[in-house]
Amino acid sequence: MGRPLSTYVVGAFVLSALEIYCCFIPKDDCDFDPEKEAIVTHSMWLSIQIGFAVLNLIFAPYMQAKVWKTLMQEIKEKPQYAASGKQVVPKAEVQDAFKKVFCEDFGVLFYFFASIMSLVWCYKGMYKWGDDLEPDCSLVAAASLGQALVALAFVYTFCWYCCPCCAKAIELEQQADHHYDRVRTGEGDSD
Asked: So which domain of life are we looking at (predicted)?
């Protein structure tokens, strides 16, 4: 939880889990009206919606890991230490790492286009093909949660990209590999 974007990861996990749950509890008599000219059945729509939810489950920790990896590479180049002896990563560098990953990573680009497809899929399912279905057919809940996941990603992206107050400085504990370097170079204790 001390890493950047941890609240985004938790929020994405909770919303994705709820969406997957809603997709698995449809009634048997739910199906799209043939006059609506839906390109899939109700159960196929729910299956594809599960795919979008799983993509969100994968992307949230992927984005966090990419930002963390970028930060670790940057602090190796120019370490800064606090009075307590802990290594400090200023919030400007945390935000810069987020911006770099957001603008340069192909996984983020893929997720951007998948998010647009997810919004279109939710809209088609909820307002075009399934607008006359009963509320307990789980389509409305699944589509709403799918839209909420896209909104969550958009809000976090906007806040982290545009607002410097959203990022915070990180204090890192002393890394175990520092001891390894001392021992390897002959400094410190010799075992």
From this structure: Eukaryota
pLDDT tens per residue across span 157-176: 898 888 877 777 777 765 54
* pTM score: 0.79
Residues β-bridged to residue 170: 89
Report the alpha-carbon distance of residue 152 to residue 19 in Å, rounded.
14
Q: Estimate the crossing angle of helix 139-162 against helix 106-123, to 10 degrees.
A: 140
Q: CA-CA distance, 174 to 80, in Å (whole number)?
A: 12
Q: Whole-angstrom Cα distance, residue 131 to residue 157?
A: 31
**Rg of the chain, C-alpha, whole Å:** 22
Q: How many CA atoms lie within 13 A of 88 on its CB side?
A: 11
Q: State the chain's mean pLDDT as an integer.
A: 81
Q: Is residue 48 pLDDT above 50, yes or no?
A: yes
